[in-house]
Amino acid sequence: MTAFKALSAAAVLGGGFLAMAGPASADHQVRGHHPHVQQTTTVVINVSCFRGPSSEVIWDRPNPQFVDSLVAAGYSFPEAHAIAERVCRDAASVNRPENAEATMYRIFAENPPRG
């Protein structure tokens, strides 16, 4: 047998061995051992506050849809109400909705919902 034929025979035998190993790998996938796939969930929080007639925050409070959207995102009702009060009563967000939004993003990042 020449060197070429010997290498060809080894390649064929090796290829046959690899072909036999292939279905075992596929079978492993079928049994539920899939690589971890990270899933993302979109959460929509409706930041909505009642603003009183003055620039002071004495009348300011969250609207119900704000608290409800926090509960729907996974916060408990007491957590949702406290977060909404914090966002709506922030003096830096009076007539500056982008500040209220930034405050909500920060709170969401620091204290994500558990539910």
Core attributes:
two-stranded antiparallel sheet; mainly alpha; 115 residues; 2 domains; 4 helices
For the largest beta-sheet, the strand count, sense and barrel status come to: 2 strands, antiparallel
User: What count of structural domains?
Assistant: 2
Tell me the Rg in angstroms.
Answer: 30 Å
Question: Portion of residues in helices?
Answer: 55-70%
Order of helices and strands: HEEHHH
Placed side by side, the strands forming the largest sheet appear as 1-2
Shape descriptor reads elongated
SS strand fraction: under 5%
Class by alpha and beta content: mainly alpha
Mean pLDDT: 78
The count of strands amounts to: 2
> Stretches where pLDDT falls below 50 for ≥5 residues?
1-30
What is the subunit organization of this protein? single chain
Distance between the ends: 70 Å
Q: Helical segment tally?
A: 4
Protein name: DUF732 domain-containing protein
Signal peptide: 1-21
Keywords: Signal
Organism: Roseicyclus persicicus
Description:
With 115 residues, this protein is mostly helical. It has two domains: 1-34; 49-110, no CATH class. Helices cover 56% and strands 3% of the residues. The chain contains four helices and two strands. The chain has helices spanning 3-30, 64-73, 77-88, 97-110, and strands spanning 49-50, 61-62. Strands 1-2 form a two-stranded antiparallel sheet. Helix 2 (64-73) packs across helix 3 (77-88) and helix 3 packs antiparallel against helix 4 (97-110). The longest helix is centred in the first third of the chain and has 28 residues, at 3-30. The protein is elongated, with a radius of gyration of 30 Å.
